[in-house]
Amino acid sequence: MPRDIHIPIFPPLGGLNNDTARIAQPANTTIDCRNVFPYGRDFRSRIASRPGTTAYSLTTRGAGTVKLFMQVSSVSGGVIVQTMYAVAGSIGAGAGKGHLYYVNGGVIKEDNASLAATAGSVPTTYAGVVVHRNRLIAYGPDHQWAASKVDDYGNWDYADKTSARAHRHTDIIYNASGSAADPILTAIPWTNDLLVYAGDHSLWALRGDLAMGGRVDLLSNGIGILGPSAWTIDPQGSLWIVGTGGIYRGSGGSFQPMNVGHYSAYFQSINRSTNTTSCAWDRDRNGLWIFSAGKDSLFFSVRDQGFWPMSLGTGITAAGVFDGPASTDRQVLFSDAGNIRSISTNSLTDVGGGDVAGYIYLGPFMPVGPDEQAVLKETVLTLSDQNSGVDYVLQAGNSPYQAYNAPTATASGSLLTAASRQARIRSRLRGTCFYLKLSNPSGAFFEFDNGSMTFSRAGRYHA
After folding, report:
1. Are 343 and 350 contacting, i.e. CB atoms less than 8 angstroms apart?
2. What's this model's pTM, rounded to 2 decimal places?
């Protein structure tokens, strides 16, 4: 039997998983990480410290804390122009016909001016608005909604008998059901034929148009949403919701939980009354951003089904995506402590936050078994050619818990690899279990591809 034992090290692209016992850590996952992605700066599969954030300038509507980002398209000189609004105040918002609509102080406003009535009276008792099927729809904060006439957002004449007429929850057309059971927290224009009313414990669907034979159906009586902006739609048309118990992906009218057995504690600790939750879809990294005030942010990689916690500030109140004509115009935006920020490409620092501190734990590595010790002799790391430096800590103990929390032996150092992609670490650590922590030094970033560890047997362990 050969004395040396070689163990390959693969990047745990499946992300953070702390739902299992440490000795049973699922393959392709990590016990602990922060501020790292399963993508390098060239978007290849590898573990890399995330880039920093940069300041972003927007057109602002309203006053106070930013609650919503909304992109509006218009035409100028035959060219489509994209404008991004940061909407503040007590609002809900939607875009239509090149304008931004929101509710402030109970009044529906259009580009910061009160919406003028063309027929009937513009409602003043709703919490939010959205545009769907070319109707301006006002909803909440209770079980109710009202919809303007098609193509006329100032027309709220419910007595009109045409099919394009305005209507409201008390104005039941044909045999459609009326209001949703839960108070409506947000309305989501999922598709042209499907508007979702989301409460804190249920989801309702307005199918089609109530004035043209549509109906209201219950989508789910067990899934709710954590806030007005806790949703997004991916490029394939799936609806993503952060709701009761975690993340759900909606497709074809049904919803699938996406965080089962991964990072349950994060979602269980969200408090609807104190943690304002917002979502945005990252097309470049093919994943979901979750921003929750008072908590770390979270990135969910669809490709690897992994969760990646990020320290981007705990005062984030809104998130959105600006997608203009140029590649540099595509930005995930979020608001924190008065700053509008975006994820950069190459920055090493955060706006107002200093250097990005990224790290990840690899392991546990048990070369022989839980009752027999080994000596770690050498660790080889293969880093990307874009890597500018990496710090390492090797930790050993006689159980996965001890090796992570209170190691009996450690070795640490810094590896600057501008001239070489491969680094060798000589060590003599003894134990039954081992972890390797990688992090980026101040003013640098790291990208890890793979590696290996070489052990020798050291005899049976006796507590």
Report:
1. no
2. 0.92
